[in-house]
């Protein structure tokens, strides 16, 4: 029987896996790294960038507050005065728990996986709102290029510290690039603003011992797949059914692997049942096949919003592996 790591490599390289890669099983996520304050259910917090996040009780996630009193960046042409990056944490104490976790992982079995969020596109709209960020790409492209370069430099400074301490062989990087039906920006605009940024970021990781780039974007992104391949993404996690995943595998499978096709919204809700989870999980596995595909809830971490859904999908995938391999 192949290890989780071996089975993953057989799957993404078009070899001979002996079972489905079961959701996040190959990534041992190091969540203790000092990446900055993260909002939790029922909380309102301000992070090191000055961005205020709120997660109302009863909702499924948090998001920045963008009224006049809370918006960090009110004028893109003034970003140098209004945006100040926090210091990258360099103390041994701050990194101790993450280092201990990374050192405890059996790297023959799993990838030591550093978690990085938010991504560069998300940072632009967290600072100034989605509407302002999208408008700025059109109205003030030079300032947006400069702001993006500033955000990239910060991530590279964080990456240098993180790599030196954790020596990750996988990066799980968030940056949502679309809605369910469309990317937020055109492929041409993505190529201009974000491809150079991610070439620098993912190129740096790959040049410093990282073997695997897993990028989360639970969205439509068919039109951005060539760019994903160009910047060095190995696995697109969060790929929704609106992308026609079997078609993507047929067209791009030898260049990138697709992880998802079980839309969180249709299985992870208060009235979920094992039958519903089984239906959509089996459909994904049967239609997408054994290579260049990892069945997974499109959720951006290894859990579900409602207790039991993620575990039920895991059990179904295990059963299907026994039946289909």
Strand proportion: 5-15%
Q: Distance between the terminal alpha carbons, to the nearest Å?
A: 12 Å
Could you please say which CATH topology applies here? TIM Barrel
Order of helices and strands: HEEEEHHEHHHEHHEHEHEHHEH
Structural shape: globular
Number of helices: 13
The average pLDDT is 97
Walk me through the structure.
- The structure is a single chain.
- The chain contains 13 helices and ten strands.
- With 325 residues, it is α/β, with parallel strands linked by helices.
- The protein has a single domain (4-324), classed as Alpha-Beta Barrel (TIM Barrel).
- The strands form two sheets. The chain has a seven-stranded parallel β-sheet with strand order 1-5-6-7-8-9-10, sandwiched between helices.
- β7, α9 and β8 form a beta-alpha-beta unit.
Write the layout of secondary structure elements.
Blueprint: H1 4-12, E1 27-30, E2 44-46, E3 52-54, E4 63-64, H2 79-82, H3 92-104, E5 111-116, H4 120-128, H5 130-139, H6 141-166, E6 170-174, H7 187-193, H8 195-207, E7 212-216, H9 225-231, E8 235-239, H10 245-252, E9 257-262, H11 264-267, H12 274-288, E10 293-297, H13 309-324
Parallel strand pairs: 1-5, 5-6, 6-7, 7-8, 8-9, 9-10
Antiparallel strand pairs: 2-3, 3-4
